Automatic annotation (TrEMBL):
Protein name per the record: Ubiquinone biosynthesis protein UbiH
Gene3D superfamilies: FAD/NAD(P)-binding domain (3.50.50.60)
Domain FAD-binding: 6-341
Record keywords: FAD, Flavoprotein, Monooxygenase, Oxidoreductase, Ubiquinone
Length: 404
């Protein structure tokens, strides 16, 4: 058996590894266990899988020492344009120059590279990759996981960071409210004729949102964006099988002349869209973070940021408690984490679900009403600033690690 550490983090993805690094900054040790091969997750090439990192999440990366490594690879989001089917009445969110950007876009590969490099160099992180968990146990005095290679790792607190289908959450019997949107997100990297001017586009169609997210130009100076196109589950297989030429024709039809001609598309991937939210995010000696606790529609690009807010809150709760002599699995600390994160995560989840349903109502009348509402927001600076602060993640009770 390995040495007993403070945390046993099951899942070493973007949220799980950020948690391990943030904890290490506070002197909290961890075992990280993940079944994926890091080499597969950091393979060369841009396939469109990217994440919007809010201002608050960027503060977290800065505070754990990753900003300098990541800065050259991030594309600032200077404005967000929201449109109903490219009809008149567009809504623009553009902060004042002194307020900075609304966030940054990163290829997921670059985020993983930075996290993995830092984790390898951190002695407080024991990283077990390419290995399955065959058994989990939580007892009065600690937690353990048995790995497929026969190795056992022990800690004081178990953290489920395995994503939407978390086996740890299921084994713990934590109740999940969920539903399927019967839609699928098609992901691809695009190169296009005109520069995106650092504008993120969210174009709503009755079939689902069509998002174009700004990425840095490639090495040859070609302009790039990440596409997240929501289609019905029934149409997804057909869209994925389209030839590149036919796929680009469909994309150009939906994006109009925003970026001129689309010149190429990278490999396409997809994932089903659904909503889930756990009634509780803790159990004895167990905490959930990220998609293990809450899964939302990518409509506002807040999924990863919601998980990083979990990270900031959990690390602050643990660090504060350990200063008082409490150990990481103490029930008082888990209760504080539950109270802090439960309402915020639920509020964001409901907001994204509501937006998805609102813009999914078909018909000209519904479109006209939506555009009238958007025009009202466009003319109301207080409302626009509130929405921008929400996008930045700088509202509410922010953990210290997410503050500048």
């Amino acid at each position: 058996m390995s040495e007993k550490r403070d945390l046993l983090i099951l899942g070493g993805g973007l949220v799980g590894m950020t948690l391990a690094l943030a904890a290490a900054r506070k002197g909290i040790s961890s075992h990280v266990v993940d079944r994926a091969d890091p080499a597969d997750l950091t393979a060369d090439g841009f396939d469109g899988r990217a994440s919007a990192i809010s201002t608050a999440s960027w503060n977290l990366f800065t505070n754990i020492g990753l900003a300098e490594r990541l800065e050259p690879h991030g594309c600032p989001i200077q404005s967000i344009a929201v449109s109903d089917q490219l009809r008149p009445g567009r809504l623009d969110f553009t902060p004042e120059p002194h307020e900075g950007s609304l966030g940054r876009m990163f290829a997921n590969r670059e985020l993983r590279l930075a996290l993995f490099e830092a984790a390898k160099a951190e002695p407080l992180i024991s990283w077990n990759s390419k290995v399955e968990v065959t058994a989990r146990s939580r007892g009065e005095h600690g937690v353990e996981a048995t790995l497929a290679d026969g190795h056992t790792v022990a800690a004081r607190l178990m953290i489920a960071a395995e994503g939407r289908n978390s086996p740890t959450r299921e084994e713990a019997g934590l109740v999940v409210a969920k539903w399927d949107y019967t839609h699928r997100a098609i992901i691809a990297g695009l190169t296009h004729e005109l520069p995106h001017e650092n504008v993120a586009w969210e174009i709503f169609y009755a079939q689902g949102p069509f998002a174009l997210l700004p990425m840095l130009d490639d090495a040859d100076g070609r302009h790039r964006s990440a596409l997240v196109w929501t289609v019905s589950e029934a149409d997804a297989a057909g869209v994925l099988k389209l030839s590149d030429r036919a796929f680009l024709a469909e994309v150009e039809k939906r994006m109009g002349d925003i970026f001129g001609a689309v010149t190429s598309v990278a490999a396409r991937s997809s994932f089903p869209l659904g909503f889930h939210h756990t009634a509780r995010i803790t159990a004895p000696r167990l905490a959930l973070v990220g998609d293990a606790a809450h899964g939302i529609h990518p409509i506002a690009g807040q999924g990863l940021n919601l998980g990083l807010r979990d990270v900031g809150a959990l690390v602050q709760v643990l660090a504060d408690g350990m200063k008082l002599g409490l150990e990481a699995g103490d029930a008082q600390l888990l209760a504080r984490y539950e109270k802090w994160r439960g309402l915020d995560a639920f509020t964001v989840a409901l907001a994204t679900d509501g937006l998805t349903r609102l813009f999914g109502v078909p018909g000209r009348t519904a479109s006209a009403i939506r555009r009238l509402g958007m025009a009202g927001i466009q003319r109301t600076p207080v409302l626009k600033n509130w929405f921008m602060d929400e996008a930045r993640g700088v509202t509410g009770d922010m953990p210290e690690l997410l503050q500048y």
